[in-house]
UniProtKB/TrEMBL annotation:
Membrane topology of this protein: Multi-pass membrane protein
BP-aspect Gene Ontology terms: iron ion transmembrane transport
Major subcellular site: membrane
Origin species: Rufibacter tibetensis
Classification via Pfam families: Nramp
Protein name: Divalent metal cation transporter
Keyword rRNA-binding: no
Keyword Repeat assigned: no
Cell location: Membrane
Segments forming a coiled coil: none
Length: 393
């Protein structure tokens, strides 16, 4: 019997995943890669979307059918593996959350003139307030939906006023002049790497959307999450193309802010502040929630006090940012780490998908398994190649 669709939760999980992906790094990476690859970056986006969907469907379906969180699935595959994966996820989550808190502070700085540190503290207080209420899960869903919708509206406007070369972008999406493995691994790692792909899957599980009868809902939510993140990436790509085609030069200190300002003047710069604040603060919420979800099954005390652990996660990230700033090298290596975490986590999920002790009599689609294996191989190869380039560089 099919479960009635709970659109509020389904969209909440999709927006939580999408807004977790769309953080300060997402905005900067998209702008910088468009600057270096031009219209050919469309091909990288297209390929990354296909890879993202394959990863997300595999992960969310296995979570739903097994009715277990990722770390418990990993422990069922190999005792101790769940703890190792949780360590990697939480480490990466902390690193990115420091950047997210800083990004939120920068957004408020642009809007109000407050110092970045003061803006970071205010933003962290807003994020913390969500987890002080009894219905934190529902409030988190609505928060992600409202700010996610706002980001889509803002980027649509900036893309429109920048008058991008849509025809050229469409052609190069299918016939690129150049391809960058580093761009592909960064986009996939930044959209479904690390904690991000588990954000929505764990949220659905917490909301009781699980089991075979929920697969239709899980699939809808999973694809919606990738679609939402991809819409923002595509229109930021087009906006950047439009700005560059007009002969403008982006400020290397803050490329995405340049795009907004060059496209729409002073108003555009203020819109960037809203965009950055929305992207960063939703990522703070998503990172903290998902990182703690990876450790809460290890001790009943963590599960009982989940919201307080989430609040502590946000507080520590904020204190580190305010006291020592955003550690650039840490963020660079955390991004690269996500490229390696994805093959490990996805490979574990694929093994679990075919273990009766985890999945019962459920048969995982062969096409999804093959696609998942392909992603594991591609991401392992590209992550290794990127690591070698980093070491040589």
């Amino acid at each position: 019997m099919k479960q009635p669709r709970n659109w509020s939760v389904l969209l909440g999980a999709a927006f939580l995943m999408a807004t977790s992906a769309v953080g300060p790094g997402f905005l900067t990476q998209t702008t910088v890669f468009t600057q270096s690859l031009g219209a050919s970056f469309g091909f990288v986006i297209l390929l990354s979307i296909l890879l993202d969907i394959g990863v997300q469907l595999n992960v969310w379906r296995v979570i739903a059918i097994s009715e277990k969180r990722a770390q418990d699935i990993a422990n069922a595959v190999l005792p101790g593996l769940g703890g190792f994966i949780a360590f990697l996820i939480v480490l990466g989550g902390f690193a990115f959350n420091i950047g997210n808190v800083g990004g939120a502070g920068l957004g408020l700085n642009v809007l109000t003139g407050l110092s970045v540190e003061t803006g970071a503290i205010i933003s962290a207080a807003v994020a913390i307030a969500i987890f002080l209420v009894r219905e934190a899960g529902k409030l988190m869903d609505r928060f992600a939906q409202i700010l996610g919708g706002l980001m889509i509206g803002l980027i649509l406007y900036v893309a429109w006023v920048s008058s991008p070369p849509v025809a050229e972008a469409a052609i190069r999406t299918f016939a690129p002049e150049q391809i960058s493995f580093a761009a592909i691994i960064t986009l996939v790692g930044g959209t479904v790497g690390g904690y991000i792909t588990f954000a929505g899957g764990h949220r659905l599980l917490d909301a009781g959307i699980k089991g075979r009868e929920a697969l239709g809902q899980v699939t809808t939510s999973a694809v919606s999450g990738i679609t939402l993140a991809s819409v923002i990436r595509i229109f930021l790509f087009l906006a950047t193309l439009g700005v560059l085609q007009s002969g403008n030069v982006l400020n290397p200190e803050n490329p995405p802010a340049s795009v907004f300002e060059l496209a729409a003047g002073t108003i555009g710069y203020k819109l960037f502040g809203i965009m950055m604040l929305s992207a960063a603060i939703t990522s703070v919420v998503g990172s903290a929630y998902t990182s703690v979800s990876f450790i809460k099954s290890f001790h009943p005390g963590i599960a009982r006090n989940e919201n307080w652990f989430i609040i502590g996660f946000i507080l520590i990230s904020t204190v580190i940012f305010v006291s020592i700033g955003k550690p650039v090298m840490l963020l660079v290596w955390a991004g690269l780490l996500n490229g390696f975490v994805l093959p490990i986590t996805l490979g574990t999920i694929l093994v679990a998908a075919h273990k009766k002790s985890v999945m019962g009599d459920y048969e995982h689609p062969k096409l999804l398994t093959l696609f998942g294996l392909l992603v594991v191989l591609i991401m392992t190869w590209m992550a290794g190649d990127t690591l070698l380039q980093q070491i040589k560089g």
